[in-house]
Specification:
- This protein has 326 residues and is an alpha/beta fold.
- It is built from eleven helices and twelve strands.
- The chain has one domain: Rossmann fold, CATH 3.40.50.300.
- The strands form two sheets. It has an eight-stranded mixed beta sheet with strand order 6-7-8-3-9-10-12-11, sandwiched between helices. A four-stranded antiparallel beta sheet has the order 2-1-4-5.
- The longest helix is centred in the middle third of the chain and has 18 residues.
Length: 326
């Protein structure tokens, strides 16, 4: 795709959280390298999936892209504008066009606010509507997410988890954003509700021309909803490709191990598959391994893997990988 179709460009993005010691005088003794140099593009109207084990830095990456966490290094361009150089009102104006759907529908809604107040909050913050227009917009948004507009004066505790997540989605689209980070929006929901929420997100994308960064654990769901998929391990992206290319021809040993754990509905195929069982635990992001970060758990690792960090490169057809063995 051409550069004019790129909505979000991430270049060498890092987010390190300092570790300090001392009571009266605190000094930094280390850092949690949650995101440690990631580079990729997100195209207009596409859904880019971001997958990986818990603690690999997916949520931190999403929040740093939106500047909810200010990056330690690197740059994020939104529609050609460098977000890392913006502050105050300039950044606030850009935030109108970028929103987030949070993982926990129970913790992300203020229990003391009515649904009308929750959903209209972006309209008040960005001064987009009068009080009467806010009520009309909230009712319109509730219809869009398939909830009864008469619910506007109810409180979050009166709704189920799936309904709360729909309210969170309504709040995210209230300011007519172009880009939404979906931070595991279905992982806290019952399986029977997950498909409904995913179908809603797809319908809203078609109606409103939205672009998604979809953070998730469920690799089957990611293949269903996403156009391209990025695989993250210990703060770095190790592989990125179009979804069918990645699932049918994974190149990185970590991606191969992840995909080998995805259940297949055909028992005959399932019996013939070779499961790849990773040895050991994920290393600490405080002190990650030298060279390739995956080499401590990789059955194919060579001496070069522990000494030199693999380059992030394209191997053809928009398929990127960071591995010495490819």
């Amino acid at each position: 795709m051409s550069d004019n179709q790129v909505l979000v460009r991430v270049e060498g993005l890092k987010k390190h959280f300092p570790i300090t010691r001392g009571i009266l005088i605190q000094r930094q003794v280390g850092a949690v390298r949650a995101v440690d140099g990631i580079t990729f593009d997100i195209y207009r109207r596409e859904t880019l999936g971001l997958v990986g084990e818990s603690g690999c830095g997916k949520t931190t990456a999403g929040r740093t892209i939106l500047q909810l966490y200010r990056p330690t290094a690197g740059r994020v361009f939104f529609n050609g504008v460098d977000l890392t150089g913006l502050k105050g009102n300039e950044l606030r104006r850009m935030r109108q066009r970028m929103q987030m759907i949070f993982q926990d529908p129970y913790a992300s809604l203020n229990p003391r606010m009515t649904i009308a107040r929750i959903i209209s909050e972006p309209l008040r913050v960005h001064k987009l509507a009068t009080p009467q227009e806010q009520i009309e917009r909230v009712q319109e948004l509730l219809r869009l997410v398939r909830l009864n507009p008469r619910f506007i004066n109810r409180y979050p505790h009166e709704f189920s988890g799936g309904q709360r997540q729909r309210i969170g989605i309504a709040r995210a689209i209230a300011s007519n954003p172009d880009f939404i980070v979906c931070d595991e929006p279905i992982s806290a929901l019952d399986v029977s509700i997950q498909a409904q929420v995913v179908n809603l997100l797809e319908d809203l994308q078609d109606q409103l021309g939205l672009t998604y960064l979809f953070i998730a654990h469920d690799l089957s769901m990611v293949r269903h909803i996403c156009d391209r998929v990025a695989v993250m391990y210990l703060g770095q992206i190790v592989e990125l490709a179009e979804k069918d290319e990645l699932y049918d021809h994974p190149l990185h040993p970590y991606t191969q191990a992840l995909l080998s754990a995805v259940p297949v509905p055909d028992p005959k195929v399932e019996r013939r598959r070779n499961r790849i069982i990773l040895e050991g635990d994920v290393p600490s992001p405080i002190n990650p391994p030298s060279g390739c970060r995956f080499h401590t758990r990789c059955a194919r690792a060579q001496e070069l893997c522990s000494q030199q960090e693999p380059a992030w490169r394209e191997v053809g057809g928009g398929h990127f990988v960071a591995c010495h063995l490819v």
